[in-house]
Write a structure and sequence with these properties.
Two copies of one chain form a homodimer.
Chain A (H helix, E strand, L loop, with lengths): L11 H11 L4 E5 L5 E5 H17 L7 E5 L4 H12 L3 E4 L6 H11 L3 E4 L4 H8 L7 E4 L17 E2 H6 L15 E7 L7 E6 H12 L11 E4 L6 H4 L1 H8 L2 E4 L6 H10 L4 E4 L1 H13 L9 E4 L6 H11 L2 E7 L6 E4 L11 H8 L4 E2 L4 E5 L14 E6 L26 E9 L5 E6 L4 E3 L2 E3 L1 H9 L4 E11 L3 E10 L7 H6 L13 E4 L13 H7 L9
Parallel strand pairs in A: 1-11, 3-4, 3-5, 4-8, 5-6, 6-7, 10-11, 10-12, 12-13, 13-14, 24-25
Antiparallel strand pairs in A: 1-2, 8-9, 14-15, 15-16, 17-18, 18-19, 19-20, 21-22, 23-24
Helix pairs in contact in A: 1-2, 1-3, 1-9, 2-3, 7-9, 10-11, 11-12
Chain lengths: 548, 548
Amino acid sequence: MLGQMMQQPLLVSSLLVHAERHHGEREIVSRRVEGDLHRTTYRELAARSRRLANALTKLGVQRSERVATLAWNGYRHMELYFAVSGMGAVLHTLNPRLHPEQLLYIAEHAEDQALFFDLTFLPLVAAVAGRLQKVRHWVALCARAHLPADAAKIPGLLCYEDLIDAHHDRFDWPEFDENSASSLCYTSGTTGNPKGVLYSHRSTLLHTYAAALPDALNCSATDSILPVVPMFHVNAWGLPYVGCMTGAKLVFPGPALDGKSLYELFESEQVTLSAGVPTVWQGLLAYVQGNGLKFSSMRRTVIGGSACPPAMLRAFGEGLGVHVLHAWGMTETSPLGTTCAFKAAHAGLDKDGRYALMAKQGRAIFGVDMKVVDDAGQELPFGSEQQGELLVRGPWVIESYFKDVGGSPLRSDAAGRGWFPTGDVATIDADGYMHITDRSKDVIKSGGEWIGSIDLENIAMAHPAVAMAACIGVPHPKWDERPLLVVVKKPGAEVTRDELLASFGGKIAKWWLPDDVVFVDAIPLGATGKMQKNKLREQFRDYQLPSA
Amino acid sequence: MLGQMMQQPLLVSSLLVHAERHHGEREIVSRRVEGDLHRTTYRELAARSRRLANALTKLGVQRSERVATLAWNGYRHMELYFAVSGMGAVLHTLNPRLHPEQLLYIAEHAEDQALFFDLTFLPLVAAVAGRLQKVRHWVALCARAHLPADAAKIPGLLCYEDLIDAHHDRFDWPEFDENSASSLCYTSGTTGNPKGVLYSHRSTLLHTYAAALPDALNCSATDSILPVVPMFHVNAWGLPYVGCMTGAKLVFPGPALDGKSLYELFESEQVTLSAGVPTVWQGLLAYVQGNGLKFSSMRRTVIGGSACPPAMLRAFGEGLGVHVLHAWGMTETSPLGTTCAFKAAHAGLDKDGRYALMAKQGRAIFGVDMKVVDDAGQELPFGSEQQGELLVRGPWVIESYFKDVGGSPLRSDAAGRGWFPTGDVATIDADGYMHITDRSKDVIKSGGEWIGSIDLENIAMAHPAVAMAACIGVPHPKWDERPLLVVVKKPGAEVTRDELLASFGGKIAKWWLPDDVVFVDAIPLGATGKMQKNKLREQFRDYQLPSA
């Protein structure tokens, strides 16, 4: 027997309709590539999204076809989010930080029919345009007056504002199966070709509800949200959708992600909540601390993508009064899986206890379930403190990659059937708080035991002279692998190998102590701002450890 | 093209699984009919729910069959919520405040197979049991030791704790279509037979996500929630489900709803959030104010079901530091439709401005859309200040009544097709805040114009001598109807007709002023605590107004 409530599909367009209708006056502020600060509202954004949907229809974009973007965080990118998904096509956000060859592979694999790009990426687009035969339309995200002379290199280049102006703002968002694809984002795996994760309208809407909950991102109409996390990276963790659902003000930083630009935007737009990966906050923290500044409105920031070093938690919390909410997720999980919101039982924790808890990635948001399993696939009970691979499942977790590349990513063994193996190594404590100890491929295997590289990096990062630290396993004749610490010093700061190793005293088991330290000028970062330890391992493959 | 995320149905059982797994230690505290305060946890509740599901299976309860309850708010009732819906049967919550003849009608119409009841209702059950042939199992919600001697009047009566004890706690919640029926609640209409609203697992889960959002009930794991609103009334506004989703502590008051009992429970369990209809708060406010008490932990309460008088908003807010969140909903809307959460634009309001806003029922929660239409069915624009009938739609709004009684409740005219007409008369302001001015059947029609009875009642309620006020239209030879104010004075308080009418001065248009005042000992309340104005209209049908 079926219930007798209205059947309404969960569609991305409904978010925009709600925002226009119930939060029409709320602002969306964008730092543009053109250099200025642009202000619009949900009402205007909705009208322009409908114009864009008419334009895309006129250009011949069909239901389910992919429309690609190469763009910073901004209102035009957001219009593409809603126009493309809303009309039933699939928004494909390309990551401009990828190597051009990878971009070519991805755009071809996705069969992108149109590509919308910010002017920043004109050289990149000019370089690849001739090799992307399937792309029928190239659109520069600007007004015609801003088109540079060399734009003529791209035959038939269209101008976004012309497109918008040429169409009226009446468009009825179609109704269709909520399981239809809405957007596509490729993972930048460290080995092999990137693989596409194809989100549905249903998965996006459910993720949006869950993301806005008080113990997740806790977003309300009174918030002013600045997503530093790019809209080309897992849909900016869902924040453009959360904005529409809640009526929060959205502040988009465009290409200006340096500490000074971000700080000024936080202040001028009275931002209350931000979100990004740890590496983007380094510059902001340095600028704010270096100039003795404070935040007048920012109270919370969400950090995920990589583990947030405890030193950064304290720098924000104790130094600046900004509570860091540690979160965990992946492209394959839309991305939110866990957030480190406190439980009532934690009310009595002292400061050190609170920070120790905040360093964990947190507990499952309702919708996602998780477990940690041993090598045999058996679940390790919560509170066992044993580390194992983290498995997750839920209605916004991947079932299979786009075009089924690589076969089913899910576990097929009896114990893990139907679960997605994250590739993360983690523990789960008795309260259900998950703590990532490593990526499974980054784990250092010493004498048959695992050493978690993240703990070692966090201790190194706490040293005042250290700007960035990576710990990798290098081959060792007796122990198979031993940890090597690779460190970037802060500008002008000094620290010796022995001083740094001495700072580990009493904080870890003795056999976890890195065998050596090397100082480098830079650690390679991937397209999503994560340290590329595979490159470091390659670089230090033949490194002679003193103990070897 | 479909997205490639996991297909997981939205099921009520997943709420319990989440609560057990991620909030297993969190408490559920219940004042029992037995008189004591009972403490359990989500972990224990989940295990007992599985035992109960085994017991129901053994009793022969099949998928989709209705299992009825006649019970107060408590942990056993909550176990029924999850065991019955979780196994795929339908939880039917009967309202014990209904007349026995209505109860009989409802239980027969629903074809209830089993009835679980608190001992409070033994006399009621004993009176109707012989006439309910389809009910195969009668279960008293207690331990055998608490069964009174006269329980033997009900042949084959089972004892709940025996049932639980006799079965093991291993039960795999089945997976099925999320559109399956999960629970059933009858509306107690003022005319005609009650009609059933049949919720689905999908509608329940989506409503739960929306209800927990920061601008809705704003529930987190650190909350301690006491639902005064009964679990037999639209699933206690969804709070048992919200508890599981968020890991909030739940505090159930059982049958003890007097001011003293409630206050003591608020304090002893450090309740942070409560919810109920305006009439239940009268007793609590009188007790707290009369004894010069304060709340040490309670900061918010949700008031809905009927319009909350502005005087009550201020009594809670100014006197006790408890923020009242005004909300609107109906049995047909699961129930949450709107909540009166502020927007950023309201930050500059002064105190009077804030209270004026808080007196509105609020703005649409994402998922529900609403509009106000004129007599011709045309939408009145937001901000027009014109009143009209409120229409709503959304995935947790009714499509049709159980067994399609009364035909489709939805509008069939072109302008309103697919919308549910609420029977409420309302305005919507420019910011999207809806304000109920009346029930359409309670509107007073004077000289072709509408007079909203709620505004008049609110003014009367603000007088210190008034405990309760109802304003009804009575026949008038010239104007068709004119308003008559029916008032219950506070114990020991005095006020005259003329004094009371004088208090309306300057607050309303002159032609809205009630023509007369009658003082009565009591105003009849319906089964959900709302004033039964139809009975008052009947009673005063021949009342001679001085102007007539």
